[in-house]
Design goal:
By secondary structure, the protein is of the alpha/beta class. The chain has helices spanning about 40, 50-60, 75-85, 100-115, 135-140, 145-150, 165-175, 200-210, 260-265, 285-300, 305-320, 350-355, 380-390, and strands at about 20, 25-30, 30-35, 95, 125-130, 160, 180-185, 190, 195, 215-220, 240-245, 255-260, 330-335, 335-340, 360, 370. The strands form four sheets. The protein has a seven-stranded mixed β-sheet with strand order 4-12-11-10-7-5-6, sandwiched between helices. It has a four-stranded mixed β-sheet with strand order 1-2-3-15. It has a three-stranded antiparallel β-sheet with strand order 13-14-16, with helices on one face. Helix 3 (about 75-85) packs parallel to helix 10, helix 7 (about 165-175) runs parallel beside helix 8 (about 200-210) and helix 11 (about 305-320) runs parallel beside helix 13. The longest helix has 17 residues, at about 100-115. The radius of gyration is 21 Å and the shape is globular. The protein starts with 19 loop residues before the first strand and ends with a helix. Bound molecules: pyridoxal-5'-phosphate.
């Protein structure tokens, strides 16, 4: 018996059973749908990409996994080297793990211990209202979304602020010396409702983190690899720790990375064994994941994905222009993300089935109907997705 995610099992609708997938399409036994969700925003190259398939098959024939405790191997070595070259600034030190939630946990633990290693105790985290950073316990605490995290009622030592510079300055004025980190989903808050905000907020955050000696963490598990129209938001404002997941492997296999800058790494680099980072997920640096991630990045560069994403954004803006309905609160577009926020969540009841009948897989949640398509999508396919979204309101 499968226990499905985010569902009341007693009342949930039968999930679509997928028997094949190719490009942007998911296939059931008798139906074909464009995956407008990219399997939780991860399958950026679409399904069954021949280059990625080949990479992972070759690695299976070599070896699938060896642990990183006392062992190392070429794929993990190459991926860390590639990320070091590819990521901005001195974000050079990659700690691998098997999921975004764990990678965020590692980032928070790194930040906390960074100060402990200096003989300092800082015990507060600054984060955003509507933040989502994963479903493990500490990530639920720094997150701020009652729908995911209703079981956590007490959040000691975590302050949530809206994305205004006023609130940011106020928080630092009151608690700046107590924060061990400020963690944000930069520019685009995903699971909290596809909320978008301005880069000036992050620029000011960087200044305040410098002034108060607080580590800035970008959780780019959702925004990384082009989703906002930037390769990484970290290309615009440099964090101390960058968290990558979801699209890291092109959606082939679960893997994530917590990437630290030199300052953070050196905070652990010591003759004292107590200053070491005591963490080690069993499947960190999995060889299949590393091989496919490396190929995914190569494709991203070689086929100029940033241009593809800008085109997706331009088409989306064009197609959504002038679209309005009294039930809609706002239409938001950024890079490869479009969200129609409705005033009442009941407005979206039945939309998934409606979209399926029109050949689009969609998974609206709460008041949000959205699309985060694979970047390889063709113009007509994207228009089909957007027309389906608009048609629901006709
Ligand atoms: C999905 C997500 C996570 C959690 O990643 P998992 O791989 O599901 O654990 C963390 N942060 C953000 C911003 C996410 O979107």
């Amino acid at each position: 018996m499968i226990w499905y995610p985010y569902q009341q099992m007693k009342t949930m609708k039968e999930p679509y059973k997928i028997v094949d997938a190719q490009g942007v399409y998911l296939y059931t036994k008798d139906h074909k749908m464009i995956d407008s969700v990219s399997s939780w925003w991860s399958v950026i190259h679409g399904y069954k990409n021949p280059v990625l398939n080949r990479a992972i098959k070759e690695q299976v024939d070599n070896f699938s996994h060896v642990m990183l405790g006392g062992l190392t191997h070429e794929p993990v070595w190459q991926l860390s080297k590639k990320l070091q070259e590819w990521l901005p600034g001195d974000l050079d030190y990659c700690f691998f793990s098997d999921s975004g939630s764990v990678a965020v946990e590692v980032a928070l633990k790194m930040a906390l211990q960074f100060y402990i290693n200096q003989g300092k105790r800082r015990n507060m985290v600054l984060s955003l209202e509507h933040a989502y950073h994963g479903d493990t316990f500490k990530t639920m605490e720094v997150g701020d979304d009652e729908d995911y995290h209703a079981i956590i009622t007490e959040k000691k030592g975590v302050i949530h602020i809206p994305t205004t510079i006023e609130a940011l300055e106020e928080a630092f004025k009151n608690h700046g010396k107590d924060f061990y980190c400020f963690i944000v989903e930069p520019l685009l808050q995903g699971a909290g409702g596809m909320r978008m905000y301005d880069i000036s907020f992050l620029e000011r955050a960087r200044e305040l983190c410098n002034a108060y000696d607080v580590l800035l963490i970008f959780d780019e598990v959702a925004t990384g690899f082009g989703r906002t129209g930037n390769r990484f938001v970290a290309d615009l404002v440099l964090p101390d720790i960058l968290v990558l997941g979801k699209a890291l492997t092109g959606g082939y296999i679960g893997h994530a990375a917590t990437v630290a800058n030199k300052k953070v790494y050196e905070g652990f680099y010591s003759d004292d064994p107590d200053c070491a980072l005591m963490h080690g997920p069993t499947f960190m640096g999995n060889a299949l994941a590393c091989r496919v991630a490396l190929k995914s990045i190569e494709l991203f560069e070689k086929e100029n994905y940033i241009e593809k994403i800008h085109k997706i954004e331009a088409i989306t803006k064009r197609e959504m222009e002038g679209f309005a309905d009294s039930r809609i609160k706002e239409v938001r577009i950024m890079g490869g993300c479009v969200c129609i926020e409705v005033k009442d969540s009941k407005t979206l009841e039945g939309y998934q089935e409606f979209a399926c009948q029109r050949g689009v897989f969609s998974r609206p949640f709460l008041n949000y109907m959205y699309a985060m398509v694979p970047y390889i999508i063709e113009e007509e396919q994207l228009i089909q997705v957007l027309d389906t979204m608009k048609a629901w309101f006709l």
